[in-house]
Amino acid sequence: MNKKVMTSTLAGIILSLAIITTSTLAENQAEAETTPFPSREKVISVTGTATSSTEPDLLVITFGVETQEKSASAALSANSESMTAVVDTILSMGISQDEISTSRISIYPIYDNYRDPSTEKYTQELIGYRVTNTISVETIQLEKAADIIDGGVSSGANRVDNVSFTLSPQKQLDLKDDLLGKAVLNAKKKAENALSPLNHKIIGVKAVSLSEFGIPPPIPVFSSGMFAEDSAFKSSTPVFSSDQDITTTANVIFLIGSN
């Protein structure tokens, strides 16, 4: 056989083997990527909890002044006069201006519905305007709750829409940091207790999932819309706060191994 022919034939064989080898490697690599080896990790998932009973440190009181007059300007003027007296009284008790805010103010017409005897049709007649103005007092001076209520009502407030105790933003933050740490430690303790009879131990942490920190609703003292004419306001108003129970959770996935 001619040397040139032999050389060409050998080169073709080598090229064919290289193509087959490359194709086989590619197929093996694709198979390895689509069918990975199963995880050999051993894990345990545990949910820890932490609860704290704490005293509220924020008092929230919402006063309302409602006035009704034949004209809108008269209703606004009367309402403003009464609300100014309420605010002045509250300020005189040591409550700062920053602790008082306007919650809502509204004005709407009042109609009298009657049946016209000549046409036998129902007709509306404008008889006046009603103005509602509400303010909120938020203070950490919980001991002044009764005095603030009595002072506001005696100086012109004819509605007490809300009296409640809750947690200030700073106290919420402090409790959140403390309870989340305790919840994680509780999860670890549960995992250790569960693994002890199985002759296993915690060797690491795979994941941690923290629950949203839930603040309980404010503790209401009076229901919404209590009028100053109610019997609850005929004498000095006793107001007491009570502790609030706060709970948070943390789910932890621990890596485990044999002792």
Describe the structure.
By secondary structure, the chain is of the alpha+beta class. It has a domain at 58-166 and 221-240: Protein of unknown function (DUF541), domain 2 (Alpha-Beta Plaits). It has 4 helices and 9 strands. Strands 2, 3, 4, 5, 7 and 8 form a 6-stranded antiparallel beta sheet that branches. A 3-stranded antiparallel beta sheet has the order 1-9-6. Helix 2 runs antiparallel to helix 3 (145-154). Residues 3-7, 17-23, 32-38 and 231-235 have low confidence and may be disordered.
Q: In summary, what is this structure?
A:
This protein is α+β, with helices and mostly antiparallel strands and 259 residues long. Helix content is 34%, strand content 39%. The strands form two sheets. Strands 2, 3, 4, 5, 7 and 8 form a six-stranded antiparallel sheet that branches. A three-stranded antiparallel sheet has the order 1-9-6.
What is the CA-based Rg, rounded? 37 Å
Shape: elongated
Number of strands: 9
Mean pLDDT: 80
CATH architecture label of the domain at 58-166 and 221-240:
2-Layer Sandwich
- The total of helices stands at 4
Largest sheet descriptor: 6 strands, antiparallel
